[in-house]
Amino acid sequence: MDHLPMIAALSERFGDGLTAALIGLVTGVLFGAAAQRSAFCLRAATVEFARRQMGPRMAVWLLSFSSAAVWVQAAALSGLFAPNEARMLAVTGSISGAVLGGLIFGAGMVLSRGCPGRLLVLAATGNLRSILSGLLFAVTAQMALHGWLAGARGEMAAWWVTPDGRNVNLLTALGLPRGSGLALGLMVALLALYIARRNRIGPRPLIFGAGVGVVVALGYFMTYSLAQVAFDPVSVSSVTFTGPSANTLMAMLAPFEGWGFDIGLIPGVFIGSFVAAAIAGELHVQTFENAGQTRRAMLGAVMMGFGGMLAGGCSIGNGISGSSIFALTAWVALPSMFIGGALTDLLIDQPREGVRRPARP
């Protein structure tokens, strides 16, 4: 592979850990810019779904999802990436954690008005609500990983796990032919474009929405390439926010333990979002509207921190990165997040906002 000598040279000069952090930084910058310009958000897509409105947010999310699946599976078919070496597939998966954590996370993202990735993007533009929610999310994720909530998380995750010490690759487990994942991604892309055309969405959000998926594939490709030449073990992963947020928080508060992809990703997303918003003239300070909104956001952030760690990833870690490699737990967690979010909107937000559901024909 022509790119391996370049990555090997970077690794030899800077070390494996710092090279992984640089890859995370570049991945984060590109993701932050694409997410900011496309307004990519699972929470917004879930609310549209709950209100029977297959609108622009659903189109953008589906296009991001399909783009990741297409590019990741294309890389796998061409031999540029081996999905089974990705961190999510290389470790035991928790099905009970995916279900319960997904439901909790989905409810939390509706209460806080954004998933962790969206909160970080908004924080970079001056949204104070997102800054507070993001910090609470990271603190809770760290507590669920190594702190007071770790015992409860571990107990719930152990109720139902995948066999043989590994997650399950759905394409392999179902005996599907090569190219099935790529074909599914293309079909979802056609659905996304149909919804976009029906809603008369311009090209910009669609291009940047597809870019979100491309960046996820790039993250996998670069970390996998580094793992092939690194002297020390390197985790093959891509964009996610639960673990990286917790790790980045501890890197700022505790003695530094070493560089890695996670440490570069979070600052990269912030920088990319900030630059994209500055170029578009969309930097402005926003704050909470009232005390009730503050309480909602804080509760939602805590729920996302615990739920995301229990589910093994956030709406992007499971919903885009994990789903694109067809990890079983990701495909269980994603609909659980949709259900948790949709029920929260149906039972809390719609009655509060006086939303009338369309009459059945």
Automatic annotation (TrEMBL):
Q: How does it sit in the membrane?
A: Multi-pass membrane protein
Pfam family, any one: Sulf_transp
UniProt-annotated location(s): Cell inner membrane
Keywords of the record, alphabetical order, are: Cell inner membrane, Cell membrane, Membrane, Transmembrane, Transmembrane helix, Transport
Q: Where are the transmembrane segments?
A: 20-40, 60-82, 88-111, 170-194, 206-227, 263-285, 297-320, 326-348
Main localization of the protein described in the UniProt heading: membrane
Per the record's keyword annotation, is Lyase included, yes or no? no
Tell me the InterPro entries matching this sequence: Sulf_transp_TsuA/YedE
| Gene Ontology CC annotations of this record | plasma membrane
To which protein family does this belong? Belongs to the TsuA/YedE (TC 9.B.102) family.
Protein name (record) = Sulphur transport
